[in-house]
């Protein structure tokens, strides 16, 4: 009866999340889906700079910012 009630009103599923998790785990259709893990944010966007190169890198960034500011004026 409870399953039929959930089918009629999907908002009642929020009242019993454990039953929903169990149904997801038993779902054959979900188990047949192809799975692929994509983690685009795992790659650093800012290059890693070590030691003495760090000061030179900081100067480059500061100069680029100064040039952009001058161009804006």
Provide the fold topology.
Elements: H1 2-8, H2 17-26, H3 28-31, H4 52-72
The proportion of residues forming helix, as a percent range, comes to: 55-70%
* Overall average pLDDT: 77
User: What is the overall number of helices?
Assistant: 4
Please state the CA-atom Rg, rounded to the nearest Å: 27 Å
Largest sheet: none
- Report the structural category: mainly alpha
Morphology call: elongated
Percentage of β-strand residues: under 5%
Number of domain units? 2
The low-confidence runs, each spanning 5 or more residues with pLDDT under 50, are none
Termini separation comes to 71 Å
- Please provide the ordered H/E string of secondary-structure elements: HHHH
User: What's the count of strands?
Assistant: 0
Describe the structure.
This protein has 73 residues and is an all-alpha fold. The protein has two domains: 2-31, no CATH class; 45-72, no CATH class. It is 58% helix and 0% strand. It contains four helices and no strands. It is elongated and about 65 Å long. The chain starts with a helix and ends with a helix. The relative contact order is 0.06. The mean pLDDT is 77.
Search tags:
4 helices, 0% strand, 73 residues, mainly alpha
Task: Give a nutshell description of this structure.
With 73 residues, the chain is an all-alpha fold.
